[in-house]
Design a protein that fits this description.
This protein has 150 residues and is of the alpha+beta class. It has 4 helices and 5 strands, in the order βααβββαβα. It has a 5-stranded mixed sheet, sandwiched between helices. Helix 3 links the parallel strand 4 and strand 5.
Length: 150
């Protein structure tokens, strides 16, 4: 990406769903457009969530999502729950600006820390987070179980 391009961080819109879907697919997350429209709408009404997109010359090139979490063991904290930057925009500062927007949101909420989990199969993201000031605090396994709808 050229430095002369105009980058804007803004809230997502339903009209962004197709471009967001393409970004998600780059990292292996296939989501139907209608589902993304629904998620954008739902997240826009949740005070505990922050979602933003990076737009360059009218094209969405990345997105970030953070959440205000509260737990018995840690109290209040922010967690970066999603960050995707398209391949063509990587290493251009877009990811850093998206994370910074999420950190600013968290700081304005009075939160003092941001946590991010990074999949072991994405070593490029590990170096990215270290480069922007994050330190590895633990290694963990994640388990999932499908639940029966009742």
């Amino acid at each position: 990406m050229r430095s002369t391009l105009k980058l804007r961080i803004r809230s997502p819109r339903a009209a962004d769903a197709e471009q967001l879907g393409a970004l998600n697919r780059e990292l292996g997350y296939a989501t139907e457009i209608e589902e993304l429209v629904s998620r954008i709408s739902r997240l826009s009404g949740l005070q505990e969530h922050f979602v933003a997109v990076a737009e360059v010359d009218g094209t969405v090139v990345g997105w970030v999502q953070a959440e205000h979490r509260f737990s018995m063991e840690a109290g209040d904290k922010a967690e970066l729950v999603g960050l995707i930057v398209g391949a063509a925009a990587r290493r251009s500062g877009v990811g850093r600006l998206l994370v910074q927007a999420a950190e600013n949101w968290a700081a304005h909420r009075g939160l003092r820390s941001m946590v991010v989990r990074s999949n072991v199969i994405r070593p490029e993201s590990h170096s990215f987070y270290r480069k922007i000031g994050y330190t590895q605090s633990k290694t963990q396994h994640v388990y999932a179980k499908a639940l029966q709808r009742r």
